[in-house]
C-alpha cells in the first residue's frame, strides 16, 4: 500500500470516528438499517433509549430491539423508506410503561445505480414541544373562560381605539351583541364630556408613564342612554416594552352611585329625625377602639350640657340585667352586618326602654371599619306591647291565664319538670246565669279565681279555659302533693259565694286530677286524662274529685 493510500485511509478513519462522536452528541436517535431491516449503526442516544450498548444493537433485527409494541408502528414506514420514499411522521414510542411522543424521519440511502442500500433513521423526542403547546392551549382556554364568563365587562382594545374583543357582559351593558362590539370605536361609546379625560390617560400609558389607570366614566348605550362605570385599563406590552393593546375592565356602578346618593339623603333625614326623637346616635372606630355618643344621646341620659360618653361611660347607664345586650363583638368580628336590641337605660328622669339599631361599615377590602348606632326611646311602645301581650295571654274577667297563656308558660318549663294537673268545673253555675244573670255569674267566676290563687302555691299556674272551667298546673309537685292540693281546692270551692247569699241556689265544684313526669306541652294525653277524671267526679255526685292514673 502506497504512503498516499495509507494517509487517505487514516484520514477516512479519523473522519469516521469524528462523525461517530458527532452522531453520539445528537439528542435524537440515529440509526441505519439495511434492506433486511437489521441494524448497521446506532448512536449512543439510541442505545440509551433502548437500554442496550450500541455494539449489541448492530446486526440485530429491528423487531428484536424496538419491541412488539413499537414494531407495528414503524414497520410500514420503514417499508416505504426502503421503497425509496422519504418518510416523516409522529407517533408514540413505548419504553416499558413509559410513553413519549416522537417524530421519526426515514431517509432512503439511494446508491448511484438507484437502488436503496438502506435507511437512515432520525427519531426526535417532541414531548416537551407537545407539553408546551398543551400548556399554551390550556392557558388560552383558561383566559377565554375567565374573559367570557367574567361577571363584569371585559374588552381588548387596539392602539387605534377600537374594540378587538368584548365579553357578553360588556356588550349587554352597551345594548349590543358580542359580534357587534368588534371594531367599535371606544370614543363612540363614551359620553362626550368624558372622552378627553379617557384619551389623556391612554396617551400617558403609551408614553410609558404608567402601566394602567382607573377612572369613572359614562358610557353610551345603543339607545342613547348613559350609565356610570368604573373603568380599569391595563397596557399589554411586547418584549420591547411597547404598548400593543389595552385590556379594559368595566363595572357598572350606576346603582352603587345612586345608592350612595340615597345614603347621603338618608343620613340627612336620619340627622333630622334623631333631633326630633328622644334618644341619639353613637359611632365606634373599630381599629382605634374609640366609641363616642352624640351630644343628643348624652344629654338625653344626663341632661343639658353633658359631654359625649365613651363606651364604659355609656354602658354604666344601661340596666345591669341588660348590659350583655350592649355587646358589639359579633359586629366587630364581622360575623354580622347589623343588629337591633332593646334594653333599659337609666337616665336622670327614670328608666327608659330603648331600641338600639347597630350597623357595621366595612372598608374597601370588606374588613370591619366602623359601627354606627341609633338609640331611640320606645318606653311607651314597649309598655303598649307588654300590655298587648298580657291581654293576649290573660283572661280579661278573672286576670288568670287563658288557654294560650297557659300553653306559653308550659312551653317554658324544663322537659324533666313533673307536674300535677287539675281541671275544675263549677257545679250549679248554669242556674246562676239563668236565674241571677250574667253579672252574678261573672262575680262568682272572679271569686273562684281568687280562691284558686289562694289555695295553690306561688309558682303554680292557674288558668281559665273558658266558661266555668279552670285548670291548675302544680309545677314540680309529686303525687302526694297533688292529692293534698286537690282536697284543699275542693274544700275552698264548696259554697259560700257572696252572689248566692239571697238565693236558694248554691255553687260548688268538681275536680279531675292526674300527674305527669313532664310538662303538659310534651304530654298531650295528660289533659285528656284529667278531663276523664273530672267526668268521673261529676258522675260520683259532684262536690268531689277523682284521680286518673
TrEMBL record:
Domain (GGDEF) ranges: 417-549
Domain PAS as annotated: residue spans: 41-85, 139-209
One Pfam assignment: PAS_9
Domain of life: Bacteria
Residue ranges constituting the PAC domain according to the UniProt record: 213-265
Cross-referenced InterPro entries: Biofilm_reg_signaling, GGDEF_dom, Nucleotide_cyclase, PAC, PAS, PAS-assoc_C, PAS-like_dom_sf, PAS_4
Name assigned to this protein: PAS domain S-box protein
Taxonomic path: Bacteria, Pseudomonadati, Pseudomonadota, Alphaproteobacteria, Sphingomonadales
